[in-house]
Here is the input.
Amino acid sequence: MPFLLYQRTLNKNGTHTFTQVKDDVSLGGKKSPIASYVQDEYAKAKNKEGPLRWHMSEADLLEKLGVSANDYALIIDLKPKKGGNVSLYQIKDIWGFSSFGWTPIALRLESLFVDKPSKNPDIFKKQFDDREAERELIHEFLYLNGDANSGEWKWGMAGNVNAVLLWPEVLKYFMNEISKDL
Here is the structure.
């Protein structure tokens, strides 16, 4: 599931043209924008006991990547290897619950193209406009192996049977945050 950085240009008709500028943005690792943001939030936290609950907006994420939210977007290519298919989702928000050496996260994504048929998906993904974008909000749950004090901040395993485990306190936090804008 690659993260792609796009420059976003406003067209005269109100749509946007997205031009890919980087095809493999790393959001995992100790020096990643997410780990850096969490460490900044931990440094500001008054209560350094217990879990750190945090929210990273699209603008915060793009700022950590060194670009402006006005001109750029970070997009997930959800099905990069599925031939004849384009499935692109723009990251809008990330919520995290960092404790005990790991961080479950909730991503708010805005669908651009969901299983859009394309004769050449790779060419389509290099540059597209959003006039046919679906623009529906959806959520995805993942986890990183790290918290504010420790860990490598590598993505947890993903597969047919591996997923993030959400204890009641974590799920309640995510549901409260997500529902604020619904």
